[in-house]
Amino acid sequence: MERKLGDTFRINLYGGINNALDNEYSQMHGLNSGFGGFFDPAMDRNYYAGIKLNYLFL
Asked: What is the spatial distance between Cα 1 and Cα 12, in angstroms, rounded to a whole number?
């Protein structure tokens, strides 16, 4: 969501979810891991949010 604050500022609010279904999956393959291989689990469900504030010169 982006909104202008007066003539000199612009604010942007954002957020999201990584791995929203909370699946288990391998983050990367172990190509040089030998014969047995290994499982490198990715992160569980997590959330992020942020605020971006811009100053407009013109």
From this structure: 6
